[in-house]
Amino acid sequence: MSTPVTTHLVMGFLGSGKTTLLRHLLAHKPENERWAILVNEFGEVGIDGVLLSDQGAVIKEVPGGCLCCVSGLPFQIGLNALLHKARPDRLLIEPSGLGHPSRILDTLTNEHYREVLQLGPAFCLVDPRQWADPRYREHDTYQDQLALADILVINKTDLCSEAELEALRRGLDGYRPPKQALVEVCQGRLDPAWLQGEHHPDRRASHPRAHQGNAPRPVLAAPEPRLSRDQPWRRYSNHGEEHFSVGWRFLDEVVFDLAAAEAFCRRLGVARLKAVLRGADGWRAFNQVGGELSVYRVAPARESRLELIDSAPLAVHPLHEELMKTLLSLPRS
């Protein structure tokens, strides 16, 4: 690979709008460029990759943890495989909203990638309403995502108050080295022109050893078990970084009552919810942050998936029973 691949980190806490921003950027990708995206999710059931798969880029998912907590080898294996398969002109890496980016940047700038990758601007999305909550603002990971970004993207400006927006503007002033830009957008509509430029190598995290004590993940993750008519669904769970997740995969033949599924989602009140579900008239994506739920059509997927994340332990069995009531049909073996 003679020309280094321009590489960007797209950071932001849970629910800040990273995947929506990536969808927007992909929709405006130059036709003559090849892009690849490495997606990391906290939960065991990857959904962002499904939401991005119809946007004209090669996607690789790393679900079930945080890229910075994966030892160097598996991250590099996944990254190398994606670079070899896609041979991209541009690579975007979306760490988990709970992921600490410092060690990812260390990997991307080490001797193995010095001639392969060229770091472009790193982005951090911020929701002004999260900034107003000290539980977010004082979180080590939240602070370091902001510190390591070259460009801060204030997202969801259509959903916050002017007072929340002004408080965030004041709070983001004074970083050293100075940020390249502070950009205000709604619905992740970032101008692709901001992708031009380079990452400032002197940016430092205040908590570079965050996640140090987390248990390492296997060097090579086991492949996902196959779904079948005899086993049309599987359930998964995960916990770490003061958050808990539960997720489901369903065979593509499973059909949901989408109205019932939407009502189920609205009742939950979890910190984060994402889903791609098959209904009688096609597929829908569900995206919920706090009490705000959006539902929209998406291209058919390989299977239905749903993931819940919250800061409190989740009542798995009652949730499972309620979710199963939203099914219209299960395949017969």
TrEMBL record:
Which residue stretches belong to region Disordered? 196-224
Domain named CobW/HypB/UreG nucleotide-binding: residues = 8-178
Highest taxon of the lineage:
Bacteria
Q: Which InterPro entries match?
A: CobW/HypB/UreG_nucleotide-bd, P-loop_NTPase, Zinc-reg_GTPase_activator
Q: Which Pfam families match?
A: cobW
One GO cellular component term noted in the UniProt record for this chain: cytoplasm
Q: Do you know which PANTHER family this protein is assigned to?
A: COBW-RELATED (PTHR13748), ZINC CHAPERONE YEIR (PTHR13748:SF46)
Q: What is this protein called?
A: GTP-binding protein
- Organism (species): Zobellella taiwanensis
